[in-house]
Each structure stands twice: as structure tokens, then as C-alpha cells.
Design brief:
Elements (H helix, E strand, L loop, with lengths): L1 H14 L10 H8 L2 E6 L7 H10 L2 E4 L5 H4 L9 H12 L3 E8 L6 H4 L5 H18 L6 E6 L33 H9 L3 H4 L1 H13 L4 E6 L7 H16 L5 E4 L2 E2 L6 H12 L4 E9 L1 E2 L8 H19 L4 E6 L8 H5 L4 E2 L12 H12 L3
Parallel strand pairs: 1-2, 1-10, 2-3, 3-4, 4-5, 5-6, 6-8, 7-8, 8-10
Antiparallel strand pairs: 9-11
Helix pairs in contact: 2-15, 7-10, 12-13, 13-15
Bound molecules: ligand G3I.
């Protein structure tokens, strides 16, 4: 019986219980390693005490999940509505947190007045410049980093830019080479003849506009499925290198890190982070979650939770191994509020460090251990 008492005493001491020494939070561990630990935030949930207290305790950076997207912040041609995003910004300022802005230019979550308007390229350019300068200007000195352009590259045609309202439907270049609303195939053939610099010049203009609105803000290009060395990240690398060589105001690249199927090629992710930071820019992991298959009554399997934890640990360690990788951000922090459930029709979920009841999961411990281990 004596050995049981000894084992119990050892467990109590290790847990810090009763000794006055408690485990660090993610925020404390991150501070020790000089890295930002952030999460996407839904302003509607800030009134929920467990949500707000967990957020303030565990993170030193926030990013509005949806509140800065066009459909919310620019609901009408002449009207802007910052009320939702202001709630996140005010919370962050009260809790001494940094604020990322997401996102100034995307092909999704745009209002119908924009997507259904019959604009010429120059009219659209005016609308976009006004949007960027109004939104960045409103948060000048508060938002320290912006996702200026999000997901401009096409996962179906790796290395090519996605066909969007901003690029070629009708796009913001005053290009006479094609009629607005031309068929996307015709446009693609027209655009195919253009040099890479010509095809991504709309992106370049957006970075200049954002820089004019807040010269001190860090300006990021943000992308999905470009975490490893692959044709999409190759194309982004070429664009960023070209931008840096020509003095386009870009400060970083965001890799979203939405992990599905419990697979992450960590060696390639690390190599990719290394090549981008070697350009003299920062890398932020911007939207990390590790989706798990859900089984009986909507729960993941214990072995999948352990595998998930290992992925969180490995990717955090990969970021920390590069001084230029300066932020790790999850896309939400509690399984109670994650885009994955609805996106996967409830077949996947449990992707975040806290469960639906705000209890720390193995992923939380693994992430904190990686942050405590620090930079190597
Ligand atoms: O605001 C309306 C609300 O009025 C309405 O009652 C409700 C009915 O379903 O829909 C609400 O809009 C939802 C919006 O989020 C705001 O909550 C949309 O339906 C829903 O589709 C939208 O999903 C967002 C998704 O982007 C859109 O593609 C997710 O919350 C958001 O997490 C997700 O985030 C993106 C990043 O911005 C870019 N990278 C990929 C990532 C995941 O798709």
C-alpha cells in the first residue's frame, strides 16, 4: 500500500498541485519563446464567459474569423460597418493582445452589390482601393498585420492564379485585352499570354494601397494548401521573391495549415517555411486546425486525439525552428465553435486545442510543450 501513497504524492507534486506551482498557459509559454500564439475570434461569442476567459488567458493575438470580410464590413456600396470587428479589437486592446486583420481581398464572402454589379475594371479598382484604404485606415495603429490578399492561387490549376472578380471577372486592371464578363476560358487564354508579373499585378496594387493606408502595418499574402513545397507554394515563392526584388511592400506570407486526414508532411512544411523566411519576410501559421473523423455520438477516437496532438507539436516545433516564423494561430480554439463541423457536414471536427466544454485536449498539452521547448 505504501507504494501507492508514494505514487500519488509524486503525481501531486508533478502536477504542481499543492506546491503553488501551476502549469503555464499557452500565452505564457509563447511569451517565453518570443512567438505570438493567436486564434480566430467570433465577436458574437465574447459575451460567453468561458469563451472570453479562455481566450484572454491562453492567447496573445486575435484575428476576427469573419467580421472583417467584405459581406460584414462593407455591406453597401457606400456603407461600412465596423461594429463586429470593433468588438474583437476592443477586447484585444483590453487584454493586451495583438490583432491580425483578415482579409482585404478574397473571392468569397463578398456582398451581392459587389459580385452582381456591372463594373468596368477601372470602376472596380476604385471600389477596391476605397475598401482597402477605408478598412486599413479605420484600424491604423491597431491592426499590426493584415492578410491583404487571401487564396489568390488556384488549387485546381497549381501555379496559376484563380479566376476571380478581382483578377479577370472583370479584374481591376484597366486591361483592354478582353471585354468584362468574357468567358473565363477566353480570359484564361488571353491572360495565359501575359507574363506572371502581369497576371498577379492586381495583387501588387493591393499591397501598395494597404501600405499607403498604414505604412507601419505588416502586410501578408495568405494561402491554403501551400504549406509544403508544391507547385502552388512554388508560384507564391516566385511572386514574393519578385515583389521583394521590386520593392513591393510585402512583409510576410501566411500558411493556413488546415490539416485533414491526420497527415502533415512536416519536413516539407519546415523546408517551405525556411525558403520563404530566407527571402527576408516573416511566416505566420494563420489558420491551424487538425480535423478528426467523428464516430459514435460525434466523438473522435482516443488514438486520433493522440495523433492530432503529435501533429500540433510537430508543426509548432517546425515554426519555432525558424526565427522568421513569428506566429502560430489556430482557426478558433474550442471545438464548440469551428467552421469544420458545418463544412464537413458533421463528419469531421474536434480540430482545436479545447473541447466543446473548454477542457484542454492532448493537442493543448502538446502545443504548450512545444512552445515551452522554444526555439532550437
Ligand atoms: O452571417 C450569416 C448569418 O447571418 C446567417 O444566419 C448564417 C446562416 O448560416 O450564415 C452566416 O454567414 C456564415 C459566415 O461564415 C459567418 O458566420 C456563412 O454561412 C458561412 O459560410 C461562413 O463560413 C466561414 C467561411 O470561411 C466562409 O468560406 C467560416 O466561418 C470561416 O471560418 C471560414 O474561414 C476561412 C478563412 O476566412 C479563409 N481560409 C479558409 C477558412 C475556412 O473556410
Amino acid at each position: 500500500m505504501k507504494w501507492r501513497a508514494l505514487a500519488l504524492a509524486a503525481a501531486v507534486v508533478c502536477s504542481g498541485f499543492g506546491t503553488g506551482i501551476r502549469e503555464q498557459t499557452l500565452r505564457e509559454a509563447a511569451a517565453g519563446s518570443g512567438i505570438l500564439i493567436g486564434t480566430a475570434v467570433r465577436p458574437l461569442r465574447l459575451s460567453e464567459s468561458a469563451y472570453a476567459s479562455t481566450l484572454a488567458r491562453e492567447f496573445n493575438m486575435v484575428e476576427p474569423e469573419d467580421a472583417l470580410k467584405w459581406e460584414v464590413v462593407h455591406p453597401g456600396w457606400e456603407s461600412f460597418d465596423f461594429s463586429q470587428a470593433d468588438q474583437v479589437v476592443d477586447f484585444a486592446i483590453r487584454h493586451n493582445m495583438k490583432i491580425r486583420g483578415h482579409t482585404l481581398v478574397w473571392h468569397q464572402q463578398n456582398p451581392s452589390w459587389l459580385t452582381r454589379g456591372k463594373y468596368t475594371p477601372s470602376e472596380l479598382a476604385e471600389i477596391l482601393e476605397k475598401h482597402i484604404k477605408t478598412v486599413v485606415g479605420h484600424y491604423r495603429g491597431k491592426v499590426f498585420a493584415w492578410d491583404v490578399v487571401n487564396e489568390a492561387y488556384d488549387e485546381l490549376h497549381p501555379g496559376q492564379l484563380r479566376s476571380t472578380i478581382w483578377r479577370d471577372q472583370p479584374g481591376i486592371e484597366a486591361a483592354a485585352s478582353y471585354e468584362p464578363r468574357a468567358s473565363s476560358n477566353q480570359v484564361r487564354s488571353e491572360l495565359g499570354a501575359r507574363s506572371p508579373q502581369q497576371t498577379y499585378s492586381y495583387i501588387e496594387r493591393c499591397f501598395h494601397w494597404a501600405h499607403e493606408a498604414d505604412p507601419l502595418a505588416l502586410l501578408f499574402y495568405n494561402e491554403a494548401e501551400a504549406e509544403t513545397v508544391n507547385p502552388k507554394s512554388d508560384a507564391i515563392f516566385a511572386m514574393v521573391r519578385d515583389f521583394r526584388q521590386r520593392g513591393v511592400p510585402i512583409d510576410g506570407v501566411g500558411f493556413q495549415m488546415h490539416i485533414t486526414n491526420l497527415h502533415a508532411d512536416v519536413a516539407s512544411i519546415s523546408a517551405n517555411i525556411g525558403r520563404f523566411t530566407a527571402l527576408g519576410i516573416q511566416v505566420h501559421i494563420t489558420e491551424m486546425d487538425v480535423a478528426l473523423p467523428l464516430y459514435v455520438n460525434g466523438n473522435p477516437r482516443p488514438e486520433d486525439l493522440r495523433h492530432q496532438a503529435d501533429i500540433y507539436r510537430q508543426i509548432a516545433a517546425a515554426c519555432l525552428s525558424h526565427p522568421g516564423c513569428t506566429a502560430i494561430q489556430t482557426w478558433g480554439f474550442t471545438d464548440k465553435y469551428s467552421w469544420i463541423g458545418s463544412h464537413s457536414k458533421r463528419t469531421q471536427g474536434a480540430a482545436l486545442p479545447f473541447d466543446r466544454n473548454y477542457r484542454a485536449k492532448p493537442a493543448y498539452e502538446a502545443l504548450r510543450n512545444a512552445l515551452e521547448a522554444g526555439r532550437r
